[in-house]
Write a structure and sequence with these properties.
The complex is a heterotrimer. Chain A is of the alpha+beta class. Chain A has six helices and five strands; from the N terminus they run αβαββαββααα. Chain A has a three-stranded antiparallel β-sheet with strand order 2-3-5. A two-stranded antiparallel ribbon of chain A has the order 1-4. By secondary structure, chain B is of the alpha+beta class. Chain B has a three-stranded antiparallel β-sheet. Chain B has a three-stranded antiparallel β-sheet with strand order 6-7-8. Chain C is mostly helical. Chain C has one domain. In chain C, a hairpin with a 2-residue loop joins strand 1 and strand 2. Chain C is globular, with a radius of gyration of 23 Å. The chains are: A alpha+beta, B alpha+beta, C mainly alpha.
């Protein structure tokens, strides 16, 4: 009978009326995030960073700004003295190519995304902000952390977070 | 005696709930009948092809994410295939299977979105859209497990993929495969025999097979017109020659057939995903290639795939450096748009929205 | 117990009797009428808020999501937030708009709908041995008054679309003129069947004639009436007058602030009014066991509105020429068949005994089936592109 298709459709909709809604009521409930989630922040360990600026070279947008000066107390093959390490997260697209580039496991993607600011300048993270931040990195491109089963339970120190 | 009437020119402007992005259409109406159509686009032009000349081959993958931003994985795949042809890098077996699996999941997600918004434009107040998005969320959750992001993935690399599929991916995929066929049947039950949908889309926006081939249309629009052409069978890439699947072909070339072709393609994609899961070998997922890929000077390559919207191709020319000399993107939505005027003339305003929704374009691809 | 059932009747009798010594009989009745008007207007507006809330929550549940639940406990203050938002918005009048008609259109949309509430019987009660109907005015021509008054709202839609000086609004207004006027015909003809069975135009007498609710006695009339009412209310599947995905709200696209609020309010008020009319004409009005009469009417109104929401959640929109075809080529013949069959039954069995209900149901199903099969060729025609352009658009 012409008209039955409409009635079948209405039966489908009625069935859905009695199902549980798919909504996650943010901010009281949170959508569970994967361990490889590329958060909107960076976790950086100054002790591990040598100032090689591989991350700055690999960034497609060129938003990492590193200024170093020679360190008096290091010999050949040692670390630079880091004056500035700025990342402009306002222009960052969180592609994590910098994380892939870092040879010393010093830079990680973070696991949080709730970062708001009232000005564009407020979105630029400086060395001090990175040092003060919570050290719960994401396991993106860090297979040793993923093999250890880490999923943001505790903060990791500079010794625990790298491969050596 | 004929009534003398003047056509009014209406601007279905860049900001409109159903132009699928920033797209402007200047239409001359006589009453409600379309007399002439002038598409104006370029509102989303970001200079991707020029930017690609400044970036290394690995960094361009992030640019390709943003072309057809609703199906980023297939963009990555097309580009990476082109670079592998250019530089002579061979991806390992497991990487090819992973790429095909991910691309087919992306196809399902893209078709879900296309169908949902198509029905939304027809007027079913967002209900099928919500049902389709519920499934799309599951696919996006699976992608988040793989690569950490939900829309701009940056997952595929020259010579493979950046990460292997994690442990939690497989149970999620299996439960998805178990429930998805029932969900597709549910969409069909809600929509396929709905008399109002049939009356709005049958014989509307017909494009004949000859015209479709002449206009270089590709993808579901071409297949709905009756032309059995799918790049996965005609020019197999990756491991598609080892997969068994059918190509759904429509008969009439109208909006209804395009909707049906997309629903059927979702079912065939599920078949391919199951075969990939069964046949996947173990091994590395990334070839040992230098991170700054170089190609011989003067080399050129064209890599194309069957993206959810049609044939997506990258033409790369190298000058021996770490960046391509020229990157030309053949985007399916842009080419499909050239037939828009022929499809729209003579129809009414309500049909205009329906036809435009059925060819499923994405402005990120059109404007690049 | 009896007090609850007859509370409004007792109040009415008490007020009239209390005021008669001081003001005189007619003045007391006039004051009572004013009080009733005040009550009904407020009830209408409060029910609009309930309807808005119900629509958004129930539509959300159909779409596997929760509706609004942030404003107030469970979101019940959401309509209030909507109302406040609409009232504090800036009132923009386009520069080239026709000011007088532009300002007059919202008023003309709103007033006819309010007038409908004057005749709806919200219930019944006994007080002092006399039967009081809970309606503002129990007119003898009840349903005719309703149909006449609701036709006034259509000119207001045309006024709004024309005076906005906006092509999209004009599109909406032209479609409105076609659709609203066309669906008046099946609307009225469906009611004729009910009137023949009930033997009177007065709404209270129609309710009291429903020993068997008219949805069973006049199933064909019910189907036609509810379809025509969907079209009159601009609800999906006939909401192409305000199709967001095509015309970006059609004829009221240029209105903002409280003028838009009037359109919004009038839409839901007419939904309430027509749901009440459907409950009165077809579902048996205030009749029902155990619960008081006004509660039953409320339940039936909410049920009818639930059906409207259900249809809105499921069906896509119909194109304008298909809408017209549906009205003139499908509903009109069905309505005429309905009147013919009812008239024959009125001749043979004037009291309309109960066994006519299954007979009518069978006849109704057969008629719809036959008409639908015949209508299919009309509704899915082979379209050929009409006229093509001779000169390109633009420079």
């Amino acid at each position: 009978m012409y008209g039955l298709g409409i009635l079948k459709g209405m039966a489908v909709t009625l069935r859905h009326l009695f199902k549980k809604p798919f909504t996650v009521e943010y901010p009281e409930q949170q959508v569970p995030r994967a361990s490889r989630f590329r958060g909107y922040e960076f976790v950086w360990y100054e002790d591990r960073c040598t100032g090689c600026a591989s991350c700055a070279k690999f960034c497609p947008l060129g938003i990492i700004r590193i200024e170093t000066s020679p360190a008096e107390d290091q010999g050949v093959g040692g670390k630079y003295k880091l004056e500035k390490f700025d990342i402009d997260t306002g222009r960052c697209m969180f592609c994590a190519l910098c994380v892939e580039a870092c040879p010393y496991d010093a830079l990680f993607m973070g696991s949080k995304f709730e970062r708001g600011s009232y000005s564009r300048a407020g979105l630029v993270v400086h060395k001090e902000d990175l040092n003060k931040g919570e050290k719960k990195p994401s396991v993106y491109y860090r297979p040793h952390l993923e093999a250890a089963g880490y999923h943001n339970e505790k903060e990791l120190s500079a010794r625990e977070v790298g491969r050596w | 005696m004929a009534l003398k009437s003047q056509p009014i020119i209406v601007n279905i402007g860049p900001q409109h709930p159903s132009t699928h992005g920033v797209f402007r259409l200047r239409v001359a109406f006589d009453g409600e009948v379309v007399q002439d159509v002038e598409p104006i686009f370029g509102y989303l032009h970001r200079g991707s092809e020029k930017l690609a000349e400044e970036r290394t081959y690995t960094q361009i993958v992030t640019l390709t994410d943003r072309l057809d931003y609703l199906a980023s994985m297939t963009n990555n795949q097309a580009y990476v295939l082109a670079v592998e042809k250019l530089a002579g890098v061979e991806a390992p077996e497991r990487a090819k299977y992973v790429r095909v699996l991910i691309a087919e999941l992306m196809r399902i997600a893209s078709h879900l979105m296309a169908t949902g918004f198509f029905i939304n434009d027809i007027g079913a107040f967002a209900t099928p859209l919500m049902y389709c998005f519920r499934e799309r969320e599951k696919i996006l959750d699976m992608f988040e497990m793989c690569c950490g992001a939900r829309i701009t993935y940056n997952y595929m690399r020259v010579g493979g993929v950046s990460h292997d599929l994690p442990e939690e991916f497989y149970p999620a995929l299996r439960s998805f495969l178990a429930e998805m066929p029932a969900r597709i049947d549910e969409y069909e039950e809600l929509l396929t025999e709905n008399e109002i949908l049939v009356a709005r889309t049958k014989n509307v926006g017909v494009i004949s097979p000859e015209k479709a081939i002449n206009c270089s249309i590709s993808g579901p629009v071409l297949r709905a017109s009756g032309v059995k052409w799918d790049l996965r069978k005609a020019d197999p890439y990756e491991v598609y020659d080892r997969m068994q699947f059918d190509i759904p072909v429509g008969a009439a070339g109208d909006c209804y057939d395009r909707y049906k072709v997309r629903i059927e393609e979702m079912r065939q994609s599920l078949r391919i995903v199951r075969q990939c899961l069964d046949q996947m070998p173990s091994g590395p997922v990334l070839a040992r290639a230098p991170s700054l890929v170089r190609a011989p000077a003067g080399a050129e390559a064209y890599g194309h795939i069957e993206s959810p919207k049609g044939e997506l191709g990258f033409y790369l020319v190298s000058d021996g450096g770490i960046s391509p000399y020229r990157c030309k993107i053949r985007s399916p939505s842009y080419i499909n748009l050239t037939a828009l005027r022929d499809m729209l003339l003579g129809w009414k305003l309500a049909d205009l929205i329906v036809i435009f929704g059925s060819i499923d374009i994405n402005m990120g691809e059109v404007d690049r | 117990m009896d007090v609850i059932y007859n509370i409004f009747a007792i109040l009415e009798k008490g007020i009239v009797d209390g005021l008669t010594p001081s003001l005189g009989a007619e003045a007391a009745l006039a004051v009572m009428a004013l009080i009733k008007v005040f009550l009904v207007a407020n009830v209408g507006l409060i029910m609009v808020m309930v309807f808005i809330y119900m629509e958004r929550r129930v539509l959300g549940r159909f779409q596997v999501r929760i509706g609004p639940n942030r404003v107030g406990p469970g979101g019940i203050l959401q309509p209030l937030a909507d109302a406040v938002k609409i009232m504090i918005k800036e009132d923009i009048v386009p520069k080239a708009a026709d000011r007088l008609i532009f300002n007059l259109a919202p008023v003309m949309v709103f007033v006819p709908v309010m007038l409908v509430f004057a005749v709806i019987p919200f219930g019944v009660g006994m007080a002092g041995g006399q039967k009081y109907y809970m309606s503002v005015a129990d007119l003898d021509i009840g349903i005719l008054y309703v149909l006449a008054v609701t036709s006034l709202g259509e000119i207001a839609v045309l006024m709004a679309g024309w005076s906005s000086n906006n092509k999209f609004a004009l599109f909406g207004a032209m479609r409105a003129a076609a659709q609203l006027v066309s669906y008046e015909v099946p609307l009225v003809l469906a009611v004729v069947g009910v009137v023949i069975v009930a033997g009177s135009l007065s709404l209270t007498k129609i309710v009291e004639a429903q020993a068997v609710p008219f949805i069973f006695m006049q199933p064909l009339g019910f189907v036609i009436f509810i379809t025509a009412v969907s079209a009159e209310l601009n609800r999906t599947p006939f909401d192409l007058l305000e199709a967001e995905s095509e015309l970006v709200t059609g004829y009221h696209v240029e209105y903002s602030g409280m003028k838009f609020g009037m359109f919004y309010l009038a839409e839901y008020l007419s939904a309430f009014a027509f749901s009440a009319i459907i409950s009165t004409l077809f579902l048996g009005g205030w009749q029902g066991p155990i619960l008081p009469s006004y509660v039953w009417l409320l339940i039936k109104i909410l049920f009818v509105f639930f059906v409207f929401i259900w249809v809105r959640a499921t069906l896509p929109r119909v194109r304008i020429d298909q809408v017209m075809a549906l009205a003139w080529k499908f509903l009109l013949p069905l309505a005429l068949i309905n009147i013919g069959v009812t008239a024959v039954e009125a001749l043979l069995w004037p009291t309309f005994p109960w066994f006519l209900a299954p007979v009518n149901i069978v006849i109704g199903v057969l008629a719809v089936w036959a008409m639908a099969a015949a209508f299919r060729n009309v509704w899915e025609p082979q379209w050929k592109p009409a006229r093509l352009a001779t000169a390109p658009v633009g420079g």
